[in-house]
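Moderator note: this is an archived Q&A kept for reference. The question asked for a predicted structure of one protein chain; the sequence and the answer are reproduced below.
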Amino acid sequence: MATDTVQQIKDKLSIVDVVGQYVKLERAGTSLRARCPFHAERTPSFHVSPERGTYHCFGCGVGGDIFTFVQEIDGLDFKGALKVLAEKAGVPLVFEKPEKRDERDRLFELLEVATIFYAGKLNDAARKYLTERGMKEETIQSFRLGWAGNSWSELADHLKAKGYSEKEIELAGMGKKTERGMNDKFRNRIMFPIGDSAGRIIGFSGRIFGPDASPEAPKYLNSPETPLFHKSRILYGFDKAKMAIRKVNCAILVEGQMDLLASHQAGWANTLAVSGTAFTQEHAALIKRVTDNLVLALDADEAGIKAAGKAARAALQGGLNVKVAKLPSGLDPADLILKDAEEWRAAIRDSKDIITFLLDVLEEHAKQPDRFRRNVEAVVLPFISDVQSPIEREQYLQQIAKRLGVSVEAVTDAYKKVPHVPVLKQTPESAVKTPSPMSPKADRARQAYAFLIWQKSLARPGIKIDVFAAELERILGAKTLADLEALPDNDRESMRFGAELLHGGGSNMEGEAEQLLSVMRKEHLALKLYQATVALKDAEAEGNEGEMSRLMEETKLLTAQIAQQHKQV
């Protein structure tokens, strides 16, 4: 890769451009601030410096540039973040010469080759099936759908011809070693490639199809767990949906690949789907990076309603606001959209929060008030325990009491008996050490050093760096300065941001630097005077006249120097 590619991207994309797509930034002096996207907090402690192109959270300590931000927010490695940002910036990723690929690079390449292979094999019968399900050609191409035929080793043979080993094929989840050789993982299936947040293919889901397909084979077959593919952390379509989700501040969750394709094709580009597993708290955490709001639009049959209930609990535990779209019985989202896209829009538009949805469903099926009450206790109250907001919980308890015609106290007593499910560990705001911005009364050595490293980081510093650094070393001593320079990077970044928050926007940096050094000189002289005075008392107690005489001269000199410092203010 060209050595200047990273710099080209930084030249075209500012830190504000990138971070501002994920969080709402507000001006705070020379920097911008927001509530941190990496830990729960009610007051903003996440700061962005446009001048230096960096961010830092005073709450949880995270910080870095546009690349580290995208890595953390989208769960990518550096190369994945590089791909995302290069596409945003319009900078081509050019490799100057073949370079040694690590294992992950090889697997990404292998899966890309497999995707191209399957897409090229998409036959007329599979294409006809997709068309009958309402899929347009542009949708088929955009999502790179393909076909795995009846051959036992057609893909494996193709990959080996491209230079991939049997070990790599198996590691990528695309084949299995047997006594007869390497067999393909997928056969007689329409193939749906699954991408990571950067759009790199990491696995597949295959729907059974074709005259040679075994009637005993599962309807859908997904890639196994691999170094790249972890189904509990991956949502199908997330790479294509994340920008739309941010734009409308809401995600829609469906159950299958066909449901997702139909929803995207109908204009709902903020739709996601699970990939061969139940919805997990890890999935909820992935969604929460881009929105707090989730609409569940799963099948309307009994299995779909149960899946919606489990997904809702995981989503609530993950801190999401959850609504449920009520679909007509007997129709999955793909069939509903094909039948009447407007009815699908209405279902999403009229979705109800999960508690109201459950109360409505239970009341509709309960013929007796007593049965309705028992069902609410057994089914609904556990969901209340998953709600993260105390205010929301209180509102739901009041709603339940009103529906049952009982007191809030009675419902609250019943709720307290519900066992609570442990949730994903998050850093509560109360447990986060939040250092306040530095003030004139703070530790002067750290404050002055922070001022120095902040100025050093600027393209055009407002002070003479060498002069300030030399005077700081004279006042503090070489050892103290060396100790400050040995601080961890996170501490130094926090100090740098603190200095920017305190001094940024000032019109006279030289004046502020001199004022800071002046205060430090006085404090340094005052400390030396105190030490000399204590030593003088000790010398008097010991009757050491020579030492007494020396210390008296020293105290006079220090007193004069302090007086001189005050005159210069």
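Archived answer notes: Residues 424-442 have pLDDT under 50 and may be disordered.
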